[in-house]
Amino acid sequence: MTILFKSELNKDGNLQHITQTQIIKRIVSIIDANEGDVGRLSYILESLKQDKPLYHSDHMYLENKFNMLFMIIDDEKPKENEAISKIQKLIDSDDGDPGRLQHICDMLSQNKPLYHSDQVYLEHKLETNNVHLKNNITHFDVKPEDKINRINKLEKEITLPEVKHNPTPLKLRGLMPRDWHPPENNLNELTGIYEKIKTEEEILGDRQKIYDEINLQRSKLSQLILNRKDYEKQVSLEKILLESQIKEEHINIQTQTKISEQIISQKQELEKVKFERSELMKKITIEKDTVAKDLQYQKNQLTQTQLEQEEIEKQIKQEQILLTKMIEEQKFNLLKQAQIAREIKEKQTDLEKTTKECDDIVSQVTQEKTKLDESEKLKKLIKLQENDLIKAKEERLKIIEIITKEKENISKKTKEEQDKLQIQGILAKQLENEKKTLEKIKQKRKKVETQIKIKNQKLKIQQQKIKKQILEKNKKLKSLSAKSVRAKPRKFAKNLHENQDLTKLDN
User: Fold this and answer.
1) What is the pTM of this model?
2) Domain-by-domain residue ranges, the chain?
3) Theoretical Cys-Cys bridge with 72: which of 3, 41, 221, 426, CB 3.0 to 4.6 Å?
4) What distance in Å separates the CA atoms of residue 305 and residue 177, rounded to the nearest whole number?
């Protein structure tokens, strides 16, 4: 299984190759050390054991845990020897000595050299002179001296029964040509040779028995090795099962400890929530008092603004009456000036009076402007107070949301908190009623502002009309002054200058 994830290079920028067994060992060590998400790591471990491909997110998680970039490669498997496969086929087919063949197979798998006799036996069984096979099999070049030493060692290891020699005379053995008779003189020598041959034959027979026993022991050894391997496999499987069970128990213990910790933390959170709820109730009561005070204060300010507005309206009406009287007087004076040209001095006095009245009007206009500025300042203050109220409302709504959430959690546990939450609902209704009153006050204030705007526009229109009338009067006065007596030019010039100053002020 080769997994080729090419993620972003780390600081070192080196991509390391890791086998599947190595990464499994690392994950097991991390789980034992309880570092990271145990559930996720166990899932990754199971997927690797089942030869499943990893997700990209899991691969990135492992890279972060190992602090390196890696690529999972297949475990290196030893290259199978052709001779081993053929020997295994011979063992399976029961062709030859299975013990000896198993011994040869074990030697080849361990890359150990074969003895010459084993090699000859193998070549005879395989019935091949393939050069490739011979190259794969290493053997010893055994000398005859080494063979003798080996046999002697085996004789020492295996105790044989003692051979008893019979005292009977030895018979001559062997084949001789016809009409041949042993010489009388060399008869003793021949008997000695025959005895030696017999002893050597007996030794060879004993050695053959030893060799057969060695082969039997080899077969037994091979069977024992096979049994041992099977037993080791069973032990390894049982070990793996036990390790998995131990890991599962560890995981269960960890989960139980986590659950207990969560319960303790939840209890602490409950106590904190109760304490915070009591504090919030206190804050709500305090805020309620402050909101009520602010409402009363705003109501008083509205009443004051209404009274001031009424006073301003009364002043405007009085000024309108005065202006109408002034206009009528000015009309009467103009008629007198048209009829009587000689009474310029009296008219000049009237002009001075009119100038004074104009100054008064200008001062009144400035006063009205100051009053308008004050009203704008009051509007700004009202806006600031409205913003503060909106912020208080938002905070109150947030607090109400928190309280409702706590209500849903705590209502399941205790009845006492249900009663308290009912009280909170009553408070919320009261706050909503206060909201409605505030909205009504806002609407009234907006109406008052619109009325003030309309009245200001009317005042501006009236001021423009008065200015036009004054300009017309000045024009008439200029025309009359041109027709007046030339005996007093200086006074006339002064009056002209005064009239010009008045027009400038009006503009």
Assistant:
1) 0.20
2) 15-73, 281-506
3) 3
4) 164
